[in-house]
């Protein structure tokens, strides 16, 4: 049970070896933290000066709430108040916990709002707007994944990013929470070992449940973490699940789904990114095996992957001569090295060299020379995944900067009271909401349109939506950085998410099809489909 102290009692603790501060009515013993407290003008001195009293205001102006999520539990020693207050506070906390997902209902409320209701900080259906796409099962997934991400991911995101590595044990936790299985598209139930988020049956876990999982995870505001956890898995495993032999599936899928093994998709080469048909990595047929030679570049998770789903040339030049092979770490001739990129640091972006790698024929994924079809199959879900992440990152930029604009004053006014700042928010919001609405309608199509016509009908609009989402992300990261000013130019602290996201924009605008290629593809396909469907042009 929590302890309670009066203000007079707290005021006695102002020494370097006995230092308490009050923040939001809670008392923190920061004696052991003084030397670790950062600050340009002496982090220890600042804290000592604030000791023995209520420092809520100063705390809120210098920190993001995640600081207390991370350090609070260890430093918290009690609450301010008398024994009577104590009982009341405990009861209030309990009832707050029970209702935590519900915001107080007012006369404007029409449903059940979720989240902290920062305007446009969450999709509209969270913020008490009607939507035809979601039901109780989606609300369950949303609630569970949000709690998991806030406890297990968000407090550590900055540390992992700086370390350029996610600790191994995190993957197991993420797998057990059902998140890994949620990011691989439609997964046959036999491969799902852990309970899916919200306890939803595998057969009923639909594309909107998957959207929610990825969207909620992306609230951490780090492409390095989203890609570090599931970037390779989400695109490297589906070819094995959908086209691989039983032998390959049994060998690869269980380990990857449990977070003990890692897989990546290796398509891009030093000489070509979006020009997949021109890939050069060669797999020579040697009778009982293939001999693989070539190089792959910018391969997400390649640094720590155990398996590599590799697009190789097995036949004629162009689209028709590509196959997918599964290569395994430990096969002689495979070298991976970490690339030094602007962003997405913990995602293990690799340069990979294959030198005379002997690959058994049993490691062919699907049929020989059908690789391009599998790549195309993968692209639509990969691109939708990028849209989900990029748009949530753009939303994070809105959320973070709108909160900041409510505490930072310039020229005697809060930032949010300056029309020039509100104008920035307006342009960010209209783009994020338009992108989200387009995303939802595309996801709805992917659930209902016959699978065989999806590549033709949906490929173009998904490509356009990908470009829309990354340009929105770029716009919002820039505007949020302007609102944060210097705080978004330094790593860590209040501008932490915005600073990182600003560096990560290109990691979404280029891979999975660059904006230029996406825009062109979108129009080319629209014209082709239009002609097929009798458009009078
Ligand atoms: C439980 C108490 C506290 C904890 C755990 C804490 C933690 C931190 C951390 C982790 C940072 C690094 C930046 C960030 O991540 O936001 C920071 C920065 C800072 N803190 Fe605290 N802090 C506490 C209380 C206070 C109080 C009471 C004050 C002022 C009276 C204060 C003043 C500052 C300042 C000025 C910075 C910015 C330093 C800079 O940008 O150079 N902190 N604090």
UniProtKB/TrEMBL annotation:
- Recite the UniProt keywords alphabetically: FAD, Flavoprotein, Oxidoreductase
Start and end residues of each Cytochrome b5 heme-binding domain: 2-81
- Name the cofactor(s): FAD
User: Which PROSITE patterns does the entry mention?
Assistant: ACYL_COA_DH_1, CYTOCHROME_B5_2
GO terms for cellular component = cytoplasm
InterPro entries, per database record: Acyl-CoA_dehydrogenase (IPR050741), Acyl-CoA_DH_CS (IPR006089), Acyl-CoA_Oxase/DH_mid-dom (IPR006091), Acyl-CoA_Oxase/DH_mid-dom_sf (IPR046373), AcylCo_DH-like_C (IPR036250), AcylCo_DH/oxidase_C (IPR009075), AcylCoA_DH/ox_N (IPR013786), AcylCoA_DH/ox_N_sf (IPR037069)
Q: Which domain of life is it from?
A: Eukaryota
Q: Which Gene3D superfamilies match?
A: Acyl-CoA dehydrogenase/oxidase, N-terminal domain, Butyryl-CoA Dehydrogenase, subunit A, domain 2, Butyryl-CoA Dehydrogenase, subunit A, domain 3, Cytochrome b5-like heme/steroid binding domain
Show the stretches that span the lipid bilayer: none
Entry keyword DNA damage = no
Signal peptide residue numbers: none
Q: Please list the GO biological process terms of this entry.
A: fatty acid beta-oxidation using acyl-CoA dehydrogenase
Q: Under the GO molecular function aspect, what terms does this record hold?
A: acyl-CoA dehydrogenase activity; flavin adenine dinucleotide binding
Q: Which Pfam families match?
A: Acyl-CoA_dh_1, Acyl-CoA_dh_M, Acyl-CoA_dh_N, Cyt-b5
Q: Which family does it belong to?
A: Belongs to the acyl-CoA dehydrogenase family.
PANTHER family, per database record:
ACYL-COA DEHYDROGENASE FAMILY PROTEIN (AFU_ORTHOLOGUE AFUA_6G10880)-RELATED, MEDIUM-CHAIN SPECIFIC ACYL-COA DEHYDROGENASE, MITOCHONDRIAL-RELATED
For this entry, the protein name equals Cytochrome b5 heme-binding domain-containing protein
Q: Look up and give the organism this protein is from.
A: Phycomyces blakesleeanus (strain ATCC 8743b / DSM 1359 / FGSC 10004 / NBRC 33097 / NRRL 1555)
């Amino acid at each position: 049970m929590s302890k309670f102290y009066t203000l007079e009692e707290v005021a006695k603790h102002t020494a370097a070896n006995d230092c308490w501060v009050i923040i939001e009515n809670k008392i923190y013993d920061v004696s052991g933290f003084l030397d670790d407290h950062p600050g340009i003008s002496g982090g220890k001195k600042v804290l000592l000066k604030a000791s023995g009293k209520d420092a809520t205001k100063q705390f809120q102006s210098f920190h993001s709430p995640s600081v207390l999520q991370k350090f609070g539990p260890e430093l918290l020693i009690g609450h301010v108040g008398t024994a009577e207050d104590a009982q009341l506070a405990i009861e209030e906390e309990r009832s707050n916990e029970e209702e935590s997902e519900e915001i107080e209902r007012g006369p404007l409320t029409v449903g059940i709002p979720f989240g902290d209701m920062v305007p446009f900080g969450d999709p509209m259906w969270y913020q008490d707007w009607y939507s035809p796409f979601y039901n109780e099962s989606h609300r369950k997934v949303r609630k569970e994944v949000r709690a998991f991400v806030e406890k297990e991911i968000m407090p550590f995101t900055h540390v992992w990013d700086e370390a350029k590595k996610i600790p191994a044990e995190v993957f197991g936790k993420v797998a057990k929470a059902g998140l890994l299985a949620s990011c691989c598209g439609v997964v046959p139930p036999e491969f799902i070992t852990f309970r899916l988020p919200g306890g939803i049956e595998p057969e009923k876990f639909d594309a909107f449940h998957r959207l929610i999982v990825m969207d909620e995870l992306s609230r951490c505001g780090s492409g390095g973490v989203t890609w570090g956890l599931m970037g390779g898995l989400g695109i490297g495993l589906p070819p094995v699940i959908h086209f691989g032999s039983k032998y390959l599936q049994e060998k690869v899928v269980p380990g990857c789904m449990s977070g003990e093994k890692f897989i990546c998709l290796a398509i891009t080469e030093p000489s070509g990114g979006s020009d997949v048909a021109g890939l050069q990595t060669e797999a020579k047929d040697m009778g009982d095996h293939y001999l693989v030679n070539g190089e792959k570049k910018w391969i997400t998770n390649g640094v720590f992957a155990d398996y590599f789903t590799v697009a190789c040339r097995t036949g004629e030049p162009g689209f028709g001569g590509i196959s997918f092979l599964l290569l395994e770490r430990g096969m002689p001739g495979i070298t991976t090295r970490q690339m030094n990129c602007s962003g997405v640091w913990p995602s293990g972006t690799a340069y990979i060299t294959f030198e005379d790698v002997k690959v058994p024929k049993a490691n062919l994924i699907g049929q020989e020379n059908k690789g391009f079809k599998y790549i195309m199959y993968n692209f639509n879900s990969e691109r939708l995944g990028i849209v989900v992440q990029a748009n949530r990152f753009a939303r994070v930029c809105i959320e973070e900067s709108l909160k900041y604009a409510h505490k930072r004053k310039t020229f005697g006014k809060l930032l949010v009271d300056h029309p020039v700042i509100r104008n920035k928010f307006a342009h960010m919001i209209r783009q994020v909401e338009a992108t989200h609405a387009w995303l939802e309608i595309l996801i709805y199509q992917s659930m209902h349109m016959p699978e065989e016509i999806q590549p033709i009908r949906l490929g173009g609009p998904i490509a356009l939506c990908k470009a829309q989402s990354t340009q929105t992300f770029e716009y919002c990261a820039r505007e949020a950085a302007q609102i944060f000013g210097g705080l978004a130019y330094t790593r860590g602290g209040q501008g932490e998410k915005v600073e990182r996201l600003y560096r990560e924009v290109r990691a979404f605008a280029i891979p999975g099809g660059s904006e230029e290629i996406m825009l062109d593809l979108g129009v080319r396909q629209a014209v082709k489909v239009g002609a097929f469907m009798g458009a009078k042009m």
